[in-house]
Write a structure and sequence with these properties.
Order of helices and strands: HHEEEEH
Helix content: 25-40%
Strand order of the largest sheet: 1-2-3-4
Distance between the termini: 56 Å
Strand content: 15-25%
Number of domains: 1
Structural class: alpha+beta
Largest sheet: 4 strands, antiparallel
Number of strands: 4
Length: 123
């Protein structure tokens, strides 16, 4: 009886691992967008509770561009939502009015393939 239980444990573990894997629909929902309609309105939400902002996108010379609230257009990097978020509501990150964690408008502030990674170090 005990040997059957030990033999079934790897099978049970494999079934639990497969059941807990995200579905392709979950992965698609978390993936950064890169395809838009000209004139589409997008929404960027702060990661630090600083609110949200909406803007419009357009095709540019080198890819998509998003309009900042001040009226200027900037090229989208990984996604227009992330670029808009970094350039507006999360410009100072966690609200401490410092330009730490990569500085203003850098890729270090944007979420990538592995989600939002936060780099910390101390001396």
């Amino acid at each position: 009886m005990r040997s059957r239980l030990w033999a079934a444990l790897p099978v049970i573990g494999a079934l639990l691992a497969v059941a807990s894997m995200p579905t392709p629909a979950d992965a698609l929902a978390r993936r950064l967008r890169s395809n838009y309609e000209p004139g589409e309105i997008i929404t960027a939400r702060s990661h630090y509770g600083n609110g949200s902002v909406q803007s419009v996108v357009r095709p540019g010379r080198y890819g998509w561009q998003v309009k900042l609230p001040r009226g200027g257009w900037v090229d989208c990097r990984r996604s227009c939502e992330e670029t808009l978020r970094v350039q507006t509501v999360d410009i100072f990150g966690d609200g401490t009015n410092t330009l730490s964690n990569g500085g203003y408008g850098t890729l270090a502030r944007e979420c990538g393939v592995f989600g939002c990674l936060h780099w910390e170090w101390s001396f």
